[in-house]
Request: fold
Amino acid sequence: MYKIVLFLAAFFISESISTQQMVTDRPDQTESASTVLKGSLQIESGGYIEFREDDLETINQVILPTTLFRYGLFEGVEIRVLNQIGGAKSTSEVKSRTGIYDIEIGSKIQIFQNKNTHTQIAFLSHLSVPTGSPEITKNKIGTINKLSVSHLLSEKIGIGYNLGFNYFGTGNGDLTYSISMASAINAKAGIYLELFGELTAFNQHVSNFDAGFTYLITDNFQLDFSFGTGLNNGMNYIAFGLSWNIHDP
Reply:
């Protein structure tokens, strides 16, 4: 219950603050419906520490760094590469599993933009290629797909939500969702609140909450910090990172 109270309190506080500039796909789980400008390279990198436990085991995971490269190929079209290094250790394992995760290659295509209604819609798809270290790789080609919608509700508040489907070669795949509200404290600092989760194998519902803070050092360089917790599961995480946009005019 305290998690719901925290969410509602922060929701109403966010009503009084205004928007900011640089659009990134971190630190929240919701991918924006915006693409980077043509000829622009945006690097979004950081660290992620997760603690997960259930009745059977405890799993600790550290990813450092996780780096997303976004390049504007055309107006409304970007190509993306995600690379991660890290490891995990569970109480059921003697040794930790460390190394390079499977690389993800994909694109984001903006399919709708209406300046009058301040609405954007984009489709994002990644191909997960089994290139990771033996202890970490899934050993299968997988797909990660999302439909992303963003609305500017006012000059003060923006909201985005995703609906997705992931499939890694076995089972029925997973249905994913997220909804995020973001606002700015001033021209440089911003906050967000988010609910996200998945329907694993279209059978088991996992629901989570997270929140975070961003700070613009310059118009093209941003720092972030976030934390999250499971609403119906034993997950907690903290993350930190930076984003840098390099534009070739």
Summary: The longest strand covers residues 58-74. Helices lie at 2-14. Residues 1-20 have pLDDT under 50 and may be disordered. Residues 2-247 form a domain with the Porin fold (CATH 2.40.160.40).
